[in-house]
Amino acid sequence: MIELSMRREATGMLARSVSAHHVRAVLLAAERRGVATGPLLARAGLSPVLAEEPLIQERMTAPAAGAAESAARVPAEQFGRLVRMLWATLDDELIGFGGAPSKVGTFATMAHVVVHGSRDLREALRRAGTFYSLFPGGPRFRLVEPVAGLAWTDGVDEARMEFDVSGYDDPLHFGAESTVLVAHRFAGWLVRRRIGLRRVEFVHPEPRHAREYALLFGAPCVFGAARTAAVFDRADLDEPVLRDAAALEVFLRRAPVDVLVAADYGSTATGRVRHLIGRSLPAGTVPTPEELAGRLSVSPQTLRRQLAAEGTTYQRLRDQVRRDHALAELTGGRISIERLSRRLGFSEPSAFHRAFRRWTGETPRAYQARARARDPRGAPDSTPRARGAPEATPRARDASDPTPRARDSRSAPDATPRAPGQQP
To answer: Rounded to an integer, what distance in angstroms lies between the CA atom of residue 183 and that of residue 178?
Structure first.
């Protein structure tokens, strides 16, 4: 999956690059299908050294805290060339990581269906899910929205794109990562703005390259979750689709680079501030308004005016990011409430308790107990799950209702999510 990031070079120019880990993941896909990697690298303009590092090391889970992933990176354009060559060679947009091949051109056809017939993002995601449900190779995805009037209180203003990656043959998690990433980027492309993520949840354990996820998604990530999902503001579903056939032609011609390159995490002050606060947690302290203004090269007064013009404040954004991190940590159950309150910058646990009750209507301990009880696997200490997003129980209505197939995740296996935007 593609961890394209934007890095500021010494010259001040903006360079787009990809972690070498993802290059090796693509090379693994080639090797497993009997495709020689040397010629692929040469034609893509990449060093053959990338094929020499043992891939078995990449399969290890997260290293000890603080350990750094290799800093080696390659130009995004060359990585995109490598992926396109493998698509053509395998005739599979999932490059062998999916449960079955997804023939080249499948994504493009889905995109035409979505662009030409969708009024808003909600309808676009429904159509995408319906389209992919027709193919055994997936990727499988569903849109889930909360139902008003149910007992649970968290997540009432959020929506979820849930992905079924259970059939993926994906040792390096490249398929799962790229499925979520492409779906998220394609959704933002449709409405001509970045969709801010509240959090991203992955079934797989924390990988060695976990630090790259912040570059990719700009949001808290949960590993070992019950489902793989991208969680965002429900209001974003009402955004109109603003793309046409001409724009789609350019988009597909540039794929996968423009889909996979990390955006600037929002062209708005709100998006930039939310991202910077999120990057500071949970290991560091929340930056002050003055510190944020310094990082954004504006005065504190200007930043305050910009946020006010966008209908928000520093305090509100800080609380939103704290809330999302708190929900993620409590669902994971790997930290004490007292320690969590300190990590989130609260002066004392009682202040955290009051804030959490204001956010969710219940105490942190009660939320944590309920989150564990929702886990379908029944393990009281299950690793992280959808933080703040209840499981697919009565709480949620599948927004892909238009199709007749079952959408409740408790039903037949093939009723589980179908991922939309996999690599074109």
So the answer is: 8
